[in-house]
């Protein structure tokens, strides 16, 4: 148990480091979103479902394809920080969950989805002695998520609403929600009895199950839109896309190569992701946890725009959004579709 407390501390330190603005893997400075040539900074998270981005970085695919650019990378602890960096031009494109991107788009932000990187990767788990074995058992209990209104939060809450339960942020809600809990911190909260359940991204959900005897309440493919909803999309700004279509195409070619590599070299993909986490946090996740978590997601280039719209509709229904969401113009996968079809 001690080694997993050490893992928690080390990985939590990683999130603190990146949240404080020290997440740059290189010292290059990104240009603005209208540059042609020069520097490009690509954002990603040190999470398993960001495997395509991590492989593209670690295997050098982005540098090989973006021949006219100096390529830098920046890692992020959460989607809000990623979107802020995109907004101010610290990054030109990258990998992020659909929730923050959708919220930014609906607020008038300049963002466009140019492809997908992973589907699935949400696991609903409960503490071993919480008394929660099914969704009906959430009444009077508590759960945590990485963010208020994040992808995983909406997925769980819409499932609870379908059986007549609401979170405490809504009038009459009987299920307490603790938002903005770093996934690495969920381990300590479960150990200390501070929370009953979690809507956890992978590999943290599987870590809780395999190493801390958590109950699986809903498998990834039983979660709302579980098999079709992208857990990771690739985004850029319309400004950058319009001014630098060749650069976007080159980046997407690198992405396609990375996705193909993950399918053909799963063992090395897991090793590469684990090594990156070790590089950033000086710790490694157990191999068997990564292997089982890998089976709870699909690394893919296929974007299901209808699933993104369905998720946005659910977010509006749950009052995370003030306006009925219209995602017209949010997704443009024409370049990636052409690359995949070659």
User: Can you count the helices?
Assistant: 14
Largest sheet: spatial strand order: 2-1-3-10-4-11
Strand content: 15-25%
The residue fraction in helices comes out at 40-55%
Q: What is the total number of structural domains?
A: 2
Description:
The chain is of the alpha/beta class and 342 residues long. It folds into 2 domains: 2-119 and 229-341, D-Maltodextrin-Binding Protein, domain 2 (3-Layer(aba) Sandwich); 122-218, D-Maltodextrin-Binding Protein, domain 2. It has helices spanning 2-19, 51-58, 61-65, 79-88, 98-106, 151-162, 185-191, 204-212, 238-243, 245-264, 266-281, 287-294, 305-317, 334-341; strands at residues 38-44, 69-75, 93-96, 112-120, 122-126, 142-144, 176-178, 197-201, 215-218, 230-236, 297-299. Strands 2-1-3-10-4-11 form a 6-stranded mixed sheet, with helices on both faces. Strands 7-6-8-5-9 form a 5-stranded mixed sheet, sandwiched between helices. The chain starts with a helix and ends with a helix. The model is unreliable at 1-35 (pLDDT under 50).
């Amino acid at each position: 148990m001690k080694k997993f407390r050490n893992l928690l501390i080390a990985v939590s330190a990683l999130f603190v480091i990146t949240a404080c603005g020290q997440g740059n893997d290189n010292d290059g400075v990104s240009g603005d979103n209208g540059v042609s040539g020069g520097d490009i900074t690509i954002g990603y998270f040190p999470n398993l479902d960001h495997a395509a981005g991590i492989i593209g970085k670690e295997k050098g695919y982005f540098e090989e394809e973006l021949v006219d650019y100096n390529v830098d990378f920046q890692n992020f602890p959460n989607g809000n920080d990623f979107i802020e960096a995109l907004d101010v031009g610290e990054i030109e494109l990258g990998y992020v969950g659909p929730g923050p991107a959708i919220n930014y788009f609906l607020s008038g932000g300049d963002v466009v989805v140019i492809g997908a990187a992973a589907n699935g990767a949400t696991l609903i788990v409960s503490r071993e002695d919480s008394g929660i074995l099914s969704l009906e058992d959430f009444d009077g209990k508590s759960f945590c998520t990485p963010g208020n209104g994040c992808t995983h939060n909406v997925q769980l809450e819409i499932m609870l609403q379908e059986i007549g339960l609401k979170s405490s942020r809504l009038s009459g809600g009987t299920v307490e929600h603790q938002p903005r809990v770093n996934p690495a911190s969920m381990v300590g909260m479960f150990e200390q009895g501070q929370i009953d359940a979690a809507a956890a991204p992978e590999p943290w959900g599987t870590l809780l199950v395999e190493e801390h005897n958590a109950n699986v309440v809903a498998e990834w493919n039983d979660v709302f839109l579980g098999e079709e909803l992208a857990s990771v999309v690739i985004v850029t700004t319309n400004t950058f896309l319009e001014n630098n279509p060749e650069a976007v195409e080159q980046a997407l070619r690198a992405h396609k190569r990375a996705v193909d590599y993950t399918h053909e070299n799963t063992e090395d993909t897991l090793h590469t992701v684990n090594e990156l986490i070790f590089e950033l946090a000086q710790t490694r996740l157990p191999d068997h946890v990564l292997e089982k978590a890998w089976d709870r997601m699909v690394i893919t280039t296929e974007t299901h725009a209808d699933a993104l719209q369905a998720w946005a509709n659910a977010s509006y229904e749950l009052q995370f959004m003030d306006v009925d969401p219209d995602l017209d113009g949010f997704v443009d996968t024409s370049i990636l579709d052409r690359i995949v079809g070659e």
